Amino acid sequence: MTAAVELEPNPLFEGLRSARVPAPCCVVIFGASGDLTRRKLVPALYALAAEGTLPAGFTVIGAGRTHMSDEEFRNTMRDDVQRFGRLPVDDDVWSAFAQGLRYVT
């Protein structure tokens, strides 16, 4: 038989914000037109944006061999987030997130 263990709160965390948001940054995804990006990476990044844990000015630069414009990339990623993401797409969150999506060939 095991007893439940109660953990004491860490006194070092007192007065600190519990939610930490990193400084503005950029993520470069090589192979951005591929399956991993479509099914896992961008839906996960969108979920972080929806939860408010991405910094303001967060940018994703997708690099791939498939020729497409930034707008085509955004539309494709929105479709994939709707299809594969764990959260429904919110128009306001998506608009803010999509501003940081870029694509280069």
Written overview of the protein:
With 105 residues, the chain is of the alpha/beta class. The chain has a domain at 39-105: NAD(P)-binding Rossmann-like Domain (Rossmann fold, 3-Layer(aba) Sandwich), CATH 3.40.50.720. The protein has helices at 35-50, 70-84, 91-98, and strands spanning 26-30, 59-63, 101-104. A 3-stranded parallel sheet has the order 1-2-3. Strand 1, helix 1 (35-50) and strand 2 (59-63) form a beta-alpha-beta unit. The model has no long low-confidence stretch (mean pLDDT 90).
The level of helicity is: 25-40%
Q: How is the main sheet built?
A: 3 strands, parallel
Provide the CATH top-level class of one domain: Alpha Beta
SSE order, one letter for each helix or strand: EHEHHE
Overall body shape: elongated
Model regions low in confidence, pLDDT < 50 over at least 5 residues: none
CATH architecture of one domain: 3-Layer(aba) Sandwich
Number of helices: 3
The CATH topology of one domain comes to Rossmann fold
Instruction: Report the span from N to C terminus.
Output: 60 Å
Radius of gyration in whole Å, from Cα? Answer: 18 Å
Number of strands: 3
Query: What share of the residues does DSSP label as strand, in percent?
Result: 5-15%
Strand order of the largest sheet: 1-2-3
CATH superfamily of one domain: NAD(P)-binding Rossmann-like Domain
The averaged pLDDT comes out at: 90
Short overview:
The protein has a domain at 39-105: NAD(P)-binding Rossmann-like Domain (Rossmann fold, 3-Layer(aba) Sandwich).
